[in-house]
Amino acid sequence: MFKRILALMLCACLLCGCALATEAVPYDVIYTSANPIPDVADRVRPSVVQVIGSCETWDAVTRVSSTVEMGAGSGCYFQADSDGSGGYILTNYHVVADSELYTIEWLSGEVMDATLVGHDDGTDIAVLHFSKPAPEGAEPIPLGDSDALRIGELAICIGNPGSADEVLFGTVTAGIISGLEREDINANNFARSISVIQIDAAINSGNSGGALLNAKGELVGIPTLKFRNAAMGFEGLGFCIPINTVKAFLSQIIETGSVVRPRLGITVADIDGPDEPMRKYPPIGAQVFTVEPGGPSARAGLQQGDVITEVNGVRIKGYMALLKELDKCKAGDSVELKVYRYYDAEGNLTGSYEELSFKVRLEMLD
């Protein structure tokens, strides 16, 4: 079993804020100046916060309790409560994953307590809620359309790079969209197969969870990863979660605290092997490890040891590729699985194989 995770020493980032108020520009204005960055920065900087996660600890020797910072990053104010009494912050899950207490600091310097509404480790996103009116000048950042992005167009990042007491609040960097639908870019922070946006705008530790914006000041992505390899000298290789990947889950997280996806009712693991099946060697694919009794795959006839090589006619070579195809479907959809069976029902190698096809209906399972 081999996991094909790209080990490129990827780095995540953080955010914060200090006061710099200017006249707000309406979001419905389409900037037509040669350089729209100042207008976008004026509008969006007050709406990007630093997110700090911490935990309470207790020393058995001194018998003193204290609060220890566990992580810090950036966050984007994307939705206000209907009565204006608070709102919601979007950030990366890896920024808050190890914490139990949360605070946000605005560009104005105002600090607020926040609560973790929910998260999705599959896409590395989390939503926080604050229960005070947002500072003057801070308005929800409108969500754009990441599917409309083109390689070469303007990319504006706002975040709070730095660490501890050396955070550079409200840092604005800019560049271009360098690539779209980059796959296999992961630092073990995605539990699903995510195609990310590549940018050359500078992002550093502290930018994670911040804002990737287009020329209209719309949120089109969340800066999440950066190549860091001193030996090879990588520069200008940053990666962002597309906002369209995030949009689908925000309301579900706010309403339920988590994201529930339809499932096959199996667990699988990567299996290495030849591209095509051989008598004694299963092909590369996703091998079934367990089958939930009474679940959709069990009813369809899959069994432990089966090797899945195709989903709806698409060749898959492992767990993440399987998830990528399943994530295109919704509950109630049926998927066609091509399977090679080398084991009998008792788990014994048979010395030969069967090529099988199963139609499995995806279900929402507890």
Structure description:
This protein is mainly β and 366 residues long. Helices cover 11% and strands 38% of the residues. It has helices at 37-44, 93-96, 243-256, 296-300, 319-326; strands at residues 10-11, 48-59, 64-80, 87-92, 101-105, 111-120, 125-130, 154-159, 171-182, 196-199, 211-213, 219-227, 238-242, 266-271, 285-291, 307-311, 314-315, 334-343, 349-361. Strands 8-9-10-13-12-11 form a six-stranded antiparallel beta barrel. Strands 2-3-4-7-6-5 form a six-stranded antiparallel beta barrel. Strands 14, 15, 16, 17, 18 and 19 form a six-stranded antiparallel beta sheet that branches. Strand 16 (307-311) and strand 17 (314-315) form a beta hairpin. The radius of gyration is 23 Å and the shape is globular. 43% of the residues are buried. Mean pLDDT is 85; it is low at 1-23.
Keywords for this structure?
5 helices, 366 residues, mainly beta, 11% helix, 6-stranded antiparallel β-barrel, disordered N terminus, globular
Question: In a nutshell, what does this entry contain?
Answer:
By secondary structure, the protein is mainly beta.
Overall pLDDT: 85
In terms of structural class, how would the helical and strand content be classed? mainly beta
In which range does the helix fraction lie? 10-25%
Strand % is: 35-45%
Roughly how many Å is the radius of gyration? 23 Å
- Helices, by number, come to 5
Using DSSP, what is the number of strands?
19
**Which term fits the overall shape?**
globular
For the record, give the distance between the C-alpha atoms at the N and C termini, rounded to a whole number. 27 Å
| Lateral strand order in the biggest sheet | 8-9-10-13-12-11
